[in-house]
Design brief:
mainly alpha
């Protein structure tokens, strides 16, 4: 998994992609705090029904 800095640096772009793909996500669902990647993944998984592996591909594959 890439560094957390990469996720932080591209977070605004990733939020836009997630909102476009999963229209049910809100800004509150996409609150990211450094060091809380697992909590974010859990919240996204619950809201979207996607597997953590698929969400990790979206978040960390770029």
């Amino acid at each position: 998994m890439p560094s957390k800095l990469k996720l932080k640096g591209e977070w605004n772009e990733l939020k836009g992609k997630l909102k476009a793909k999963y229209g049910e996500l809100t800004d509150d669902d996409l609150v990211y705090a450094e060091g809380q990647e697992d909590q974010l993944l859990g919240k996204l998984q619950k809201k979207t029904g996607e597997s953590q592996e698929n969400l990790k591909k979206i978040l960390f594959s770029e």
